[in-house]
Structures are given as structure tokens and as C-alpha cells.
Design brief:
It is a single chain. The protein has about 120 residues and is mainly beta. A hairpin with a 5-residue loop joins strand 5 and strand 6.
Amino acid sequence: LVHLMQSGGGTVQSGGSLRLSCAVSGSIDSPYSLAWFRQAPGKSREGVSFIMWAGGNTHYAEAVKGRFVISRDNAKSTFFLQMNNLRPEDTAMYYCAADRVMSNMLKGSPTYWGQGTQVSVPS
């Protein structure tokens, strides 16, 4: 069983930065993929960024490329989303997620989810 606990988020002016953290507890090993998703009011949930628990492969949605950076600290069992140059359209509830099966992640249906944290960028 894997448990994800998020921290970070809040309200920041346009152009500002925030960092989200997701602490992972439980049994997690190299096949796991980790991700950040977000859901804005009235919109579908979308994948923001992905990283493997082992290895350096990362992936970003086009909307955040060049502004967001996903990283992990395996020793602390934590992964992060550094969000820079935030825009009003980044306003959403952000969720971290994990799954041992990549196809679940790619379908947007990972097994394990964090509790969610709000990011607001007023226009």
C-alpha cells in the first residue's frame, strides 16, 4: 500500500513561483511512475508532469514546458513540482499520483493519489 501526502501550494501573483511536494510512504520500487495532475474548475483533469522513481525520464505537458520542473529525492521518498512563471491559467487543484503500472498513469487513472492542494494565480 502506498500513501501520498502533499504539501505546498497557495496563492501567488502572476509570474511568481511555488513548489509542491509529495511525500511517499509504503512500498515503492523502480517500476513506479510518479506524476502531478491538475484540475481547474469546469475542466477535465490533466496530466502536468511525470517522472520515473528510478532513472531520469521526465515528461511535461506542453502548457507547462519550460516553466515547471519535476524532481524527486529518493532518499527522502519525496517528489516535487517546481512551478515558475505561474500564469492565471495554472490555477487549479493539483494532485500527486503514483502507480506501478505505466499504462494506468498514461490513462490518467493511477492507483494512488495525494489529497490535492490548491494553486491560485489571480489574473
